[in-house]
Amino acid sequence: MEKLDAQPLYTRVKRALAERILSGIWAPGRLLPNEFQLAEEFGVSQGTVRKALDALAAEHLVERHQGRGTFVARHTSDTVHFRFFQLYDAGGRIQPDSRDVRVAVADPSGRERAALALAPEGRVIRITRTRTHEDHPIIDEQISLSEALFSGLLERETIPNTLYDLYQTDFGITVARVEENLRAAPASEATARRLDCPVGTPVLAIERVAFDYSGQPVEWRVSQCLTDSVFYHSTLK
Amino acid sequence: MEKLDAQPLYTRVKRALAERILSGIWAPGRLLPNEFQLAEEFGVSQGTVRKALDALAAEHLVERHQGRGTFVARHTSDTVHFRFFQLYDAGGRIQPDSRDVRVAVADPSGRERAALALAPEGRVIRITRTRTHEDHPIIDEQISLSEALFSGLLERETIPNTLYDLYQTDFGITVARVEENLRAAPASEATARRLDCPVGTPVLAIERVAFDYSGQPVEWRVSQCLTDSVFYHSTLK
Asked: Which of A176, B101, B183, B195 could lock A227 by a disulfide, CB 3.0 to 4.6 Å apart?
């Protein structure tokens, strides 16, 4: 029987493991010690270790692969898309392509500086691209990153559709949470040109800040979407 | 030490209690037996019961009041607003007022019939109102309900700003989840008149279906919002 004031044992094991992952001591993709080794280390049963790992898996901090072991979770194109992309059509979550991708370095605007908490001399890398769905342009997107963190991006020949897996594998930056503010706005002349619609067409403007596990902002993004054939989906419980 | 394949004991107690609440055996506002009585009933320690109740409180199924005991959670105007309302301004979540409130019975449109899963002969109660923020009209709202479930609404003299607490106290219907689809759209002539804006002004159209604990749709709502001074906020983890 558990003591009155004690946390369940597995919760304490879970916290100890989560600390190693969130602190970066154990990097994304790393194989964890097996259940027997962890049980030895913490002086608990393998059942308790298994429950701790199950709880970490439920929070997407680890991934369990039958017969291969448990790994520190790594963002993949699929998991990133599933967790952080909310545009749907009647068939479900859409997977837009990208065209007219441009990457450039610039002095930040006031909004970029504030959103990314940039140092006084810090510059930004801007990625602009048009996202297409079934060959129609539907999103005019601008992404701003701190040059200090992401300078390697400038040497890349191509930019993939999903970026957070790239941030993790190439830059060691894991996006853990995004905050989005949505508004309806009239398409500007530039946006209308990129989306092939009349100036002033209503677009859904999604302004997003992405944060890493420590709570530091790592990306600022504005996506202006035509919503004739797609919509933004949200569940509240 | 816990057994290899056993759920923690408190999880099993939690599930048994959750079942009584979700099934309606224990109604909203009901005082639960005290920890000693529950421990006796389940043959576990009071510490285990306490953990089960903590877990239920974290899921908003019960509310614990120091010195008074634990109650089946009841929607209040505040908790409803906090859980199901996502419009913010720079100062935080806004609390709009209502004006021009109308309540009427009608034959359902095809969308109402589908969204509410109405019986063939079923009619709807429509509530239309204009929501204001700092005395400016910002939301043109239409709410559709099954007349079979909510006929008592027609006799009310006033309709409160938050409805889900009313649905629970007066109609025994608890909203547990809402699904929202958001689009940008041009204000129609009727919406423009109610929002005091030019026809065609971009509005954020939020289409919502609310579900009870059993997964049955109980409300369909379309809110068309001016987003000059407010925005829809969403967090993804």
From this structure: B183
